[in-house]
Amino acid sequence: MAFTYDTTFSTTRDKVRLLIGDTRSEVFVFDDAELDQILTLEGSEVFMSAALAFDVMAGDAAKTAVMLQMPGVNLTAGEVPKVLAERAANMRVRAGLAAQVDFASLYSAADSWIDATMGRSDIDLDTPTDTESPN
C-alpha cells in the first residue's frame, strides 16, 4: 500500500488528503490507489471525492479504527459515523458552491439583458472606449 502526500498540492489526490485530514504517512486511512479510485468515481471533483471518502470511512470499521488512532482525534467509536456524515455533507455543499456559475458570467448576462430591455443593445457597455482605457 503506497501513501504519498505533497504539500505543494500538485495532484487532486493531495487536495483530497488535505480535506479529509489523511496527511500522515505513519497512520493513514487511504492508500493512493483507493483515493485514485474515489477520484475516478467522482469525476476528479475534489470536494465530492472528499465527501465520498468520508462516507467510505464511516462505513468501514477498519478505516474508522485507523482514524481513531490519528493524532488529534478525540472521538469515541460511536461518534465517528455521525461526525463523518456531517463532514461528507459539508463537502457536498462546498462542491455545489464550487460548481455554480462564476459571477463574471452572471454579470455579463445581466448587462446584456439590461441593454436589450433599455434599447441599448447596439451599445457595448462592458467594453471601455478608447478614452476610458487605462494607459
Description:
- The structure is a single chain.
- With 135 residues, this protein is an all-alpha fold.
- The protein has a domain at 12-99.
- The chain has six helices and no strands.
Residue stretches low in confidence (pLDDT < 50, at least 5 long) are 101-110
The chain-level structural class is mainly alpha
H/I helix tally: 6
Q: Bin the strand percentage.
A: under 5%
Order of helices and strands: HHHHHH
Estimate percent helicity. Answer: 55-70%
Query: Gap between N and C termini, in Å?
Result: 57 Å
Q: What Rg is obtained from the alpha carbons, in whole angstroms?
A: 22 Å
Give average pLDDT, whole number: 78
Secondary structure elements and pairings:
Layout: H1 12-20, H2 32-41, H3 46-59, H4 61-69, H5 80-99, H6 103-117
Short description:
With 135 residues, the chain is mainly alpha-helical. The chain is built from six helices and no strands.
Features:
0% strand; 135 residues; single chain; mainly alpha; 57% helix; 6 helices
